[in-house]
Amino acid sequence: MSNETGIDRAAAKRRRQATEAHAQSWGAGFFVKLTLMALIDALGVYGVWTAFKVGSTVIGTVLVVLLIVVNYVYFAKRALPAKYIVPGMVFLLIFQIYVMINTAYVAFTNYGDRHMGTKQDAIEAIVRNSQVLDPDAPVRPVALLLEGDEYHLAYVDEDGQAQVGGQDEPFAADPEATVEGDQVTAVPGYTTVQEAEFEGLGGTRPTKPVTDLLVPLSSDPNAGSMKVMATDFTRGQTYRPGVEYNEAEDALIDRTSKDGQEIVYKANNTTGQFEANGQRYPGGGGWKVMVGFDNFVKLFTDPEIATTFAKVFIWTVVFAFLSVATTFFAGLLLALVFNSDRIRGLKFYRVIMILPYAFPGFMSALLWKNLLNKDYGVINNVILGWIPGFEGVDWLTGSALTAQVSVILVNLWLGYPYMFLVCTGALQSIPGDIMESAKVDGAGPVKRFSKITLPLLFVSVAPLLISSFAFNFNNFNLIYMLTGGGPIPPGDSVNDPGGTDIMISMVYKLAGVGQNPDYGLATALSIIIFIVVGLIAVFSFRKTRSLEDVM
Fold it and tell me: How far apart are CA 533 and CA 510, in angstroms?
């Protein structure tokens, strides 16, 4: 009897614990989780809908999978460990893995200026931009409409129906529009703009968006467009495409030549552009295609690009090496000086030494840019101005050599405090009994430094020196803020690398500072930077293992 009573009590206890656990699961914490998950799901569903709407099937599918995984993890009781791992994995996927995959993909395409969208986008842009006035088409009465900040046009067709359209919206019938004779007087959802509101060509409303408004007559790009007259906003003129696309021949037929002859530009689906006699269509209109290793090959085989790439690469390696060497030895020297307890006010001096490290690097670079100015900089006018006959040095915009020396010196100012802190900590970690033993054995200061201090120091700071080299190899902020990559050689554009451009600033210029950004080539160069830095890091870390033998 007692045994059955004990079993009943145990079962009752388990039921009570289960009831309490169930009640706790439906407590305030559950509703907070439910609210947060509802917000996440709402944003996720919106992202999925947007992705599929714009045709990004892969991104939409990945978002669906992520939503399913996240909901399962945070509502399933068996997935407790995953609740702490999933957020980090999701952010890793979005901000690291996706970026890396997309970067690698772009490097194998011709994505860049005039090669942005699809082939259909390119065709539509070419046809639309080639519109010329059709002298045989009648001038129609039009109504100028305003929807928000966007202008639209409306006219009455041959069947007496109102047609309404906008810049990216071909004319379509609107049965709810009010028509009086051959004029559309009102359209629900739009505000009718009277010409009197413009007071001719310059009134209270901007006229350029109106005169630039070109509305397609239909979804067929070859059908032409309509545009208001510059002197009369109530009249619309028909424009026909000067260039038509022939789908059967997959070619553009250009009728805009001065001699009146037609020029046929065949589609080259390998290069993503229309060509005739080896020349691309002058009006642009390229599209994005896979080009394989062409971007990488171009970096090493194109005479102009290869020469520039070699110069920039050599300077990048020199800049990164000298930056690490100068900052390290300057920091080490100061660390040795201020590692003695016999110096009074030691803490104050150490604080003074690390002040440049406390200021943002880009602000310091801008400050030094003004200090090194040839005309009003402090360096020329105050520090060196006392020299008889001194006319000033054009530090940053003169020769490439002076600009490179200036960049290295400024980077020395910015980088030595970090090395000073690192070396100070490493020196203080060296056991004092080792140095005492060396003194007893008769080793002098120089020998103790070269045989004991420096090897032990390298054991601690060697990995930091490697990371510092990688950082300076991609030290974009200093170059951009101080010199902008200049000085630019005479005759070159801002899109061309200058005397102080390193590889990462060259990538920046290739990707859009100038007039012809080439994202595919820039991305290929960024991959090469990654490979170079990675190989140097691997080689250096393997070599630093030998330093561990001194321990």
Answer: 20
Averaged over 162-182, what is the pLDDT?
A: 91
3-state secondary structure of 248: coil
Q: What is the pLDDT of residue 136?
A: 87
pLDDT at 459: 83
Q: Is it the case that residue 334 has pLDDT exceeding 80?
A: yes
> For residue 515, with 0-12 CB atoms within 10 Å meaning exposed, 13-18 middle and 19 or more buried, which class applies?
exposed
* Separation CA 104–CA 506 (nearest Å): 18
Q: Is 483 helix (H, G, I), strand (E, B) or coil?
A: coil
pLDDT at 450: 83
Top CATH class, 2-107: mainly alpha
- Could you please state the CATH topology (level 3) that the domain comprising 131-241 is classified under: Periplasmic binding protein-like II (2.40.430)
- Name the 3-class secondary structure at 305: helix
By the 10 Å C-beta count (0-12 exposed, 13-18 middle, 19+ buried), 80 is classed as exposed
Q: What pLDDT sits at residue 27?
A: 60
Would the pLDDT of 547 be above 80? no
Q: Per-residue confidence at 201, pLDDT binned at 50, 70, 90?
A: very low
Band of the pLDDT at 203, cuts 50, 70, 90? very low
Q: Which residue has the tokens 């999978």?
A: 65
For residue 426, pLDDT beyond 70: yes
Q: How far apart are CA 144 and CA 185, in angstroms?
A: 10
How confident is the prediction for the chain on average, in pLDDT?
A: 85
Give the DSSP letter string of 225-246: EEEEETTEEEEEEEEEESEEEE
325-362 burial string, b = 16+ CB within 10 Å, else e? Answer: ebbbebbbebbeebbeeeeeeeeeebeebbebbeeebe
Domain boundaries, the chain: 2-107, 131-241, 299-550
Beta bridge partners of 290: 109
Q: What is d(CA 403, CA 40) in angstroms, rounded to the nearest whole number?
A: 51
CATH of domain 299-550: 1.10.3720.10
**Amino acid letter, residue 376:** Y
